[in-house]
Design goal:
single chain, 262 residues, alpha+beta, five-stranded antiparallel beta sheet, three-stranded antiparallel beta sheet, 2 helices
């Protein structure tokens, strides 16, 4: 059987996976805090018939060898954590992180989730929660009689009470990772730590690791997907898939010719 049939099949399979990645990016073009993903490829093992530097039939050293590759495979899916564009909203509990870091979210299974989605709400008890009802860490409660919520660039949360005075009710702390690409996506705009991401570094905005990070109240970070870039990637993946299909078609025609000769 022709080796090229199996080699081209690996190329077509990886491009199909690449199309799945691109489709997910495009579908999340308007998802708050979404970070685009790209597929990375590696070639498979090479079948070696003669190694470079081996002794030739004439007693000489072969300057090059004879090898043939056996295709490609998906090696990783890399998530790009570059900041997305900031859009203004009318919700005082909307927050956009300007710089590195993640909001800390208390999940119902006891784990801590990490998110760039700053579209927070106020539940029946006055707690600041996500759209799914998960509380923000550190947890803060907005009194029922408060008339205004103010969130400073350093993450301080203050409310105006019934008497018209402002009082601070809490301080938002962010987390960052030495390798954010190692976080595991859980859906719902949430990530969880893994051994690859390392332990979270938690701190206050404007200090230490977060000296250059601020929070913008009344703004949200949009998806960092560039639709034009994804469409170009889509065209490239489609043409690569077609090329691999042509190779399989050519291999089939060669086998058909051989069968006719026999």
């Amino acid at each position: 059987m022709l080796r090229s049939l199996y080699t081209a099949a690996t190329g077509a399979t990886t491009q199909q996976f690449n199309m799945d990645i691109i489709a997910n990016n495009v579908s999340n073009v308007n998802t708050t805090g979404y970070k685009k993903t790209r597929a990375e490829f590696q070639d498979l093992i090479n079948q070696t018939f003669s190694s470079p530097g081996s002794l030739g039939s004439q007693g000489t050293i072969d300057p090059v060898g004879v090898q043939v590759g056996l295709g490609t495979r998906i090696s990783a899916t890399q998530r790009d954590f570059i900041n997305g564009p900031i859009i203004q909203t009318a919700n005082p509990l909307d927050m956009a992180i300007q710089g590195d870091g993640f909001f800390q979210i208390q999940l119902d299974n006891g784990q801590i989730g990490y998110s760039r989605d700053g579209s927070f709400k106020r539940d029946a008890n006055g707690s600041i929660v996500t759209t799914d009802g998960y509380p923000l860490i550190p947890q803060m409660t907005i009194p029922q009689d408060s008339t205004e919520v103010s969130i400073g660039p350093n993450g301080s949360v203050s409310i105006r009470d019934a008497t018209g005075n402002f009082q601070e009710i809490g301080q938002i702390q962010l987390a960052r990772f030495s390798n954010p690409a190692g976080l595991e996506a859980q859906g719902r705009n949430l990530y969880t730590r893994t051994p690859s991401s390392g332990d979270p570094i938690v701190g206050q905005l404007g200090q230490g690791e977060f000296a250059r990070t601020t929070i913008a109240q009344g703004f949200l970070e949009n998806s960092n997907v560039q639709i034009v870039e994804e469409l170009i990637n889509l065209i490239t993946a489609q043409r690569a898939f077609e090329a691999n299909s042509k190779v399989m078609q050519a291999g089939d025609q060669m086998l058909q010719t051989i069968n006719q000769i026999v």
